[in-house]
Amino acid sequence: MATFTVAELESMIVVNMGDYKTAKGEEKLMTKDLGSCVGVAVRDPRTGVGGLLHVMLPRHSETRASGSCFVAAKYADTGLDEMIKTLVMQGAGRSHLVAKIAGAAHMIRNATIPESEDISSRNLCAVKEKLQELGIPLLAADVGENFPRTVVFVPGDGTFRILTPGKAEKVI
Question: Fewest CB within 10 angstroms: 39, 62, 121, 127, which?
Answer without folding.
Answer: 62
